[in-house]
Amino acid sequence: MINDSPHKIKVLFVDDEFFNLQSFRAAFRKYFDIYLAQNTHEAKSILNEKPIEVIISDQRMPDQTGTDFFNEIIKSHPEPIRILLTGYVDIKAVIAAINKGEVYRFLTKPWNDEEVVVTIKNAADVYRTRKELKNKNAALEKAYNELDEFVYSASHDLRAPIASLKGVLQLIDIEPQNTTEYIGMINEIVNKMDKYVINIIHYYRGSRFDKEIEEVDISTLVEELLDEFQYMPEFKDIKVNKHFEIEKKIYSDSIKIYLILRNLIHNAIKYQRCENPQKEVSIAIYQDIPNGALTIQVSDNGMGIDSNEGDEIFKIFQRANNVKSGIGLGLHIVNECVNKLNGQIEYKSQENKGTTFTITLPLNDKKDE
């Protein structure tokens, strides 16, 4: 029997007999990552420190029976799969333990090595399946909550400009001589609605699509974004500093890199202080070839973020600054993209002094990886 997985299953074996503990380790350490406990007190300490996947416990122990031990830990450590080891025939205890959900299977003493290996591997499969199901349920609940919040926010934020449009159209009927002025107002309202829809599309693309690895031209991407943002009212008089240290071709998800840069640069421009005579936005991108990582850093000397916000700023529809209008999708999109790329995001900020966002992303060496 060989261990065909690079991951060794973590198994905790509990038995009051020292010889049994050593025999178990000798027999199965080749296949599994073995932890030994001579009593349930030691076992609980190990469970608190190690991510155990499978627990095998002897039924007859002086301090506590195996079934009582399993019953005690089922609330504090529900994830590990529990297997009961018994050297005597006690069908009632075994059936009761299985019915209560405390025991996945039972083995008899003396154990059969082949049977133990197969049982542990099957138990580990159950452990992984349950964990995946738990993670998927958590993701589903998160998606449901976000959808609920999204529908409420979207309907609210779309109704406001629609109401404004209706009001302006009524004014045109009342004051047709001012039609040109009112058309300008309509155009402004429609542009805001268009930006809102674009943000929704970006949110969908960033959080719902899987990774698509391809070559990314970071410097060209930044220049295109700056060309796009130059028509923002806040862009006037801003000094943009750029610093790139890129030695090799970069392979990553171009859409997610675009969304990260777009939202961070957009915010750095948008949240400038009008009274500041020396507005600055700095964009620095470093390629760490030895560690296979890309660092993106976007800084500004603008309004800053309230120090009490913490990670709340990354929640959907959470706005980091209430001075400027917005719907609170930008930083949520950034965070979702970083998570999808298995990266990390940090920020430092001081009110009225500015904010720095630092993104670290792992890179692929080739397009097909």
Task: Give a topology summary.
Elements lengths: L9 E5 L3 H11 L4 E5 L2 H10 L4 E5 L7 H8 L7 E6 L4 H9 L5 E4 L4 H62 L4 H30 L4 E4 L1 H12 L8 E8 L4 E4 H17 L8 E10 L4 E8 L29 H11 L3 E7 L3 E9 L7
Parallel strand pairs: 1-2, 1-3, 3-4, 4-5, 7-9
Antiparallel strand pairs: 6-8, 9-10, 10-12, 11-12
Model description:
- It is a single chain.
- By secondary structure, this protein is an alpha/beta fold.
- It has two domains: 10-134, Response regulator (Rossmann fold, 3-Layer(aba) Sandwich), CATH 3.40.50; 211-369, Histidine kinase-like ATPase, C-terminal domain (Heat Shock Protein 90, 2-Layer Sandwich).
- Helices cover 46% and strands 20% of the residues.
- It contains nine helices and twelve strands.
- The chain has helices at residues 18-28, 40-49, 66-73, 91-99, 113-174, 179-208, 218-229, 254-270, 330-340, and strands at residues 10-14, 33-37, 54-58, 81-86, 105-108, 213-216, 238-245, 250-253, 279-288, 293-300, 344-350, 354-362.
- The strands form three sheets. It has a five-stranded parallel sheet with strand order 2-1-3-4-5, with helices on both faces. The chain has a five-stranded mixed sheet with strand order 7-9-10-12-11, with helices on one face.
- Helix 7 packs parallel to helix 8 and helix 8 runs antiparallel to helix 9 (330-340).
- The two termini are 32 Å apart.
- The model is unreliable at 1-5 (pLDDT under 50).
